[in-house]
Design a protein that fits this description.
With 392 residues, this protein is mainly α. 83% of the residues lie in helices and 0% in strands. Helix 7 packs across helix 15, helix 13 runs antiparallel to helix 14 and helix 13 packs antiparallel against helix 18.
Length: 392
């Protein structure tokens, strides 16, 4: 199982590799392709939208073919898409390749998260999402190196090589998954596929959708707009705004890593509660008309507190809903998480355009209130169903 866990960690690096590549390459791409700078929104929305679709309908495919085969195939698909980007003659060719990236990512995310939630401890779930951070950090580094020499196409080829190596590892490791399945199958419930309408009828599922949407909306509202807010609203230089964003992501990584370390002594629900508690003063710091350095501290604390909520909620899925339907609910949860990813940046842009930059921290406070309310109602619902165990 140790070797399989290592393979899963490496696979999650592969999930992160494509996610931050387009942002670092786009300034060079749009100049070469002769398209407007905001055309990148079409690609990012397509990637996220296809990830939502793939996640939403992944349960049936994963339950039929197994996590090992689907993850290996999906990683190979994303590798092929990255290579396609590197040889694209025009922006139009990039559009279907972006769809392939999203479809592959959704299946990987749903399958691996559910597998780890079913078969490994909460600490492994938190560390798993730390490895995603390795992937999203690695690809901009590779692109930066390429832009200093061989150009953005070379950066995509570098990323393709990494992704192809991970896909090959996943293919040759399929026997490990089979061996693990033989050991685990004895006490495992048979999987049940729930349709989207069936899940939508359940109030507990609807509430967890809101939780996942809200926590990811907070994450991306800060990740996409945090630097801009500091530059336009607090008078930061652009380079200092970028540095503040690095501090924010460092807080997120630290939050997930520390949550993993605490899992041996602190229950998952308590760690989620700690994250919610850290978010409260963080939001207050963002709201107060204080110097920009205080807002940077607020962003760091938002990353620290919010970073652990997503992986810990993911880990609780089999306990909250039952092992038999966990894959179906997992896919829908991740789909709504990506809906939060898609909606948050344009929502912040709209609010700031209508009410000014000072409305940005107010919107963060509103998202936090939605998150707390949904979490409170969800726990209340679990208690009614006798599924809430504060010691898990």
């Amino acid at each position: 199982m140790v070797y399989l866990l290592i393979v899963i960690y490496i696979a999650f690096i592969g999930l992160g590799v494509p996610d931050s590549l387009i942002g670092s390459a786009w300034p060079a791409i749009h100049l070469e392709m002769g398209v407007p700078v905001d055309a990148v929104s079409m690609l990012t929305l397509l990637i996220s939208g296809c990830t939502v679709l793939s996640s939403m309908f992944s349960a049936r495919v994963l339950n039929r073919f197994g996590t090992a085969k689907v993850t290996a195939f999906s990683t190979a698909v994303t590798a092929a898409a990255l290579f396609g980007f590197s040889v694209s003659p025009s922006f139009g060719v990039m559009v279907p390749l972006a769809a392939l990236l999203g479809l592959g990512a959704g299946a990987i995310d749903s399958g691996l998260n559910n597998y780890v939630a079913l078969h490994f401890k909460a600490s492994h779930m938190n560390f798993l999402h730390c490895f995603y951070g390795v992937g999203v950090t690695l690809s901009p580094y590779l692109m930066t190196r390429a832009l200093n020499g061989v150009g953005w196409r070379g950066g995509y080829r570098y990323a393709f090589c990494v992704q192809a190596a991970i896909a090959l590892l996943l293919i040759v490791s399929v026997p490990l998954w089979k061996k693990a399945a033989d050991q685990q199958s004895a006490g495992e419930e048979a999987a049940v596929n729930l349709t989207l309408p069936q899940m939508a009828k359940r109030s507990d599922v609807r509430l967890v959708w809101v939780i996942m949407l809200a926590t990811n909306a907070v994450e991306y509202a800060c990740g996409v707009w945090g630097s801009t807010y500091l530059v336009t609203g607090k008078g930061f230089q652009v380079k200092h705004g970028a540095l503040a964003l690095t501090i924010y992501y460092a807080g997120m990584s630290i939050g997930r890593f520390v949550s993993g370390l605490l899992s041996a002594k602190v229950s998952t629900w308590k760690r989620i509660g700690i994250g919610i508690a850290i978010l409260a003063p963080a939001v207050v710091l963002m709201l107060l008309p204080l110097p920009g350095a205080v807002s940077v501290a607020g962003l760091f604390l938002i990353g620290l507190g919010n970073g652990a909520i997503y992986p810990n909620m993911i880990h609780l899925t089999p306990h909250n809903f039952g092992q038999d339907v966990s894959q179906s609910v997992m896919g829908s949860q991740i789909a709504f998480a990506y809906i939060g990813v898609m909606l948050a940046p344009p929502l912040v842009g709209l609010v700031c355009r209508l009410f000014g930059t000072q409305a940005y921290p107010v919107l963060l406070a509103c998202l936090y209130a939605i998150l707390v309310a949904a979490l409170h109602l969800f726990i209340k619902q679990l208690k009614k169903q006798n599924r809430y165990n504060p010691n898990i």
